[in-house]
Specification:
alpha+beta; 198 residues
Length: 198
């Protein structure tokens, strides 16, 4: 008697099922694009993250100067971020008290480009106290290698400490290490600003 070599039907069904699954998988791989297009939302998220990193670094440097020289009452807890979409830049603000606030601006690369201190009060009185201390702290924040004496020298160069200065008309500036330091009085508000010089 002769034996026939027959393949059991279950092996045929399993082979057909595997072939069908493999075909569906191959079709799916070909149909899907390998690199989905990036949405503009990803760019915005990236910009926001780099802006947040820049402001966090600024805050840490400022607080580092406050701690190093024990400039009590000036620590920044959290900078308030403000978007400026038409210029593709950002801005931040911190209010120390009802007479002193700090405002900063980021450039298109999301780096700090400008910071300003706004002080209100009696402009007929000499500039002093916490406002002068905040000015010195900002100068130290922009120049890692500066000491407190260097910051005082910048303040002296601007002319804020001159006795014969008319506070109502004052506008003085100096440039050092790629930064312009300017102090002026506009509409009874004292303004100290640091701007990067291109």
């Amino acid at each position: 008697m002769r034996k026939q070599n027959r393949i059991p039907i279950r092996y045929v069904l399993l082979t057909a099922a595997c072939f069908a699954i493999a075909s569906i998988g191959m079709y799916g791989m070909l149909a899907l694009p390998s690199n989905p297009p990036q949405s503009s939302g990803a760019d915005q998220t990236e910009k926001h993250e780099s802006g947040a990193a820049a402001t966090e670094e600024f805050k840490n440097k400022f607080n580092g100067a406050v701690g190093k020289y024990r400039l009590n009452g000036l620590s920044i807890t959290r900078l308030n971020m403000k978007d400026s979409s038409e210029q593709e830049t950002g801005a931040f603000e911190y209010v120390f008290n009802d007479k002193l606030r700090l405002v900063g601006k980021l450039n298109s690369d999301q780096k700090v480009q400008e910071v300003r201190l706004y002080g209100t009060g009696d402009i007929s009185e000499p500039t002093g106290g916490i406002f002068l201390t905040a000015i010195a702290t900002l100068i130290l924040t922009t120049n890692n290698e500066y000491t407190y004496n260097d910051a005082q020298n910048v303040i002296q160069d601007i002319g804020i400490l001159d006795r014969n200065v008319s506070q109502n008309e004052f506008d003085g500036a100096t440039v050092r290490n790629g930064f312009e330091y300017r102090f002026s009085i506009q509409d009874d508000v004292s303004i100290f600003g640091i701007t990067t010089v291109e």
